[in-house]
Amino acid sequence: MTPNEPMVSHRWLSLGVMLLLAACSVGMSHAPVTSSAGARADTDACRPPPLKQRLFLRGTMTTWTLREDLAFRYVCDAYLLNVDLQGAHTFRITDERFSGGVSFGAPPESASLHAGTAVALHAADARDAQNLAFAFEGRHTLRLAFVDGKPLLTIGPRTFHDPADTPVVDPRALSLRFDSRAPADKSPFGALRDGSTVDFALHAATGVDAVTLVIERRRLEGPQEVLDYSPLARVPLTRTAHGGRDAWRGSFSFDAIGVYGYYFIADIGGRRYAYGNNADPVYWTRELGSNGLGAVTPLADDVPVRRFRQTIYRGDFRVPDWAPDIVYYYIFPERFRNGDARNDPRPGPRTFHDASVEVHADWLQTPFRPGSGDGSDELHGNDFYGGDLDGITQRLDSIVRLGANTLYLTPIFSAASNHKYDTADYRHVDAHFGGDAAFARLVRAAEKRNVRIVLDTSLNHTGSDSIYFDRYANHAGIGAFDGGTIHPESPYASWYHFDPAAPDADHRYRGWAGARDLPELDKSAPGWRAFAYGAPDSIMKRWLDRGASGWRMDVAPWIPDDFWREWRSAVKGHRADALAVCETQFEASKFLLGDEFDATMNYVFRNAVEAYANGSDARVVYRNLELLRETYPRQALFAMMNLLSTHDSPRALYDFGWRDAHDDAATVARAKQRLRLAAFFQMTYPGAPTVFYGDEVGVTGGEDPFNRVTYPWPDRGGRPDLQLRETFRRLIALRNAHAVLRHGSLDAPLYIDEHVIVLLRQDGANQAVTALNNDALAHAVTVTLPQPLHDATFADGLSKARVRAHGATLTFTVQARDGRALFATARDR
Ligand SMILES: [Ca+2]
Ligand SMILES: [Ca+2]
Ligand SMILES: [Ca+2]
Question: In 3D, which of 486, 518, 517, 488 has the Cα closest to residue 500?
Answer without folding.
Answer: 486
